[in-house]
Write a structure and sequence with these properties.
about 180 residues; mainly beta; 9-stranded mixed sheet; 3-stranded antiparallel sheet; about 10% helix; about 40% strand; disordered N terminus
Amino acid sequence: MNMAYLIFMALWVFGSMASYVHATSCGLMADANIETIKGQPAICLPVDAKEGFPVGWISLAESYVRNPGSWAVSLKEGVKPLILKPGECVVFGEIPRGYELDRNVRSSLLTLEGNKTYVFRLSGAYKTRDAYAAVFCTGSKLKGGFEYHQYSRAADGGQVIPACDAQRNGGEYDPSTTGK
């Protein structure tokens, strides 16, 4: 493997454990939040983000699988990007004005399923290596959607895995838990 790639991955993995926002030589990488809006998962800028984020590309894909189905939208050429302000969200399945389904991604193949893990990501419009991302799993089926449980960070920098992903990570899933 390329040495630069290995160094990048090591910095990304260890750096992401230290805090939810950090700059790397490859750009800003920050944790986003997952909310439920109209029964669908939504990726949201943290309310304490220092500034708005110009969105160039939005994607949602299943984790832990090869060649996953995914949903992605990209900014149309010549259009000004959506500037997502702290606390604002983009909802899965909704295409913001000025964006279109990304034809390079198998966008029509993603259907959310219970007890699966997904990665939701916003990439920058001007600095394409800048990104906000969130990992979540789907819990119990609700009217109009699922419960969405986000992975979170512990005070020591470790990762807290929601109950709906416990089976994959060596535990047992109990649908009566809150997912944390």
